[in-house]
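Researcher: Next entry: Alpha/beta hydrolase family protein (Tsukamurella tyrosinosolvens).
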Amino acid sequence: MTGPVPVIVPGLRGSAPSHWQELYAARTDGAVTVPFPAEADRHSIDERTRLLGETVATVDGPVILVAHSAGVLAAVRWVRSLPDGDPVLGRVGGAVLATPPDFGVDWPEPHPRPAMLSAAGWEPIPRRRLPFPSVVAASRTDPLARYRVTAGLAEAWGSRLVDLGDAGHLNPAAGYGEWPLVDELVAELATARSRS
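Model: Predicted structure:
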């Protein structure tokens, strides 16, 4: 693969085989997926950021983060855990941040309760500008997030906001399987990196 390597950052419950992240990884040469934590650490934000850091360390050259749901929060937390000027940050060419969850919403089953994740250290969500180009994809019908809250995160992170309209949580339950837009967004970020 030429250009940045996509690093797939799954959500809290991982990605089903029919999830767009799994399908994207399978058809994208060189893409790597952050491993799912052991059951005992499944809800640990610290374990998820550690695994993301280890995964990025296995890649030679630049990467583009492709995160979904709670994976977005893990990615942003990992970036913010690194000191300004860390050479690893210079390797991140951008991030696609799809449908981050909102802790102010009562999530439907089988998702965990937001209060449990909040107590496990997932809050506060970092709100500093990201040091690389990023795109936040937001759904107006996401059962795990309010659109205005997601738009506020995009603004805080300095991300371009993409309004997906009626996309649910951008998962198989919402009819996503394939999500062709991810290819365009990754290509956009890769092109922006090559120009900088």
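Model: Note for the record: Residues 5-178 form a domain with the Rossmann fold fold (CATH 3.40.50.1820).
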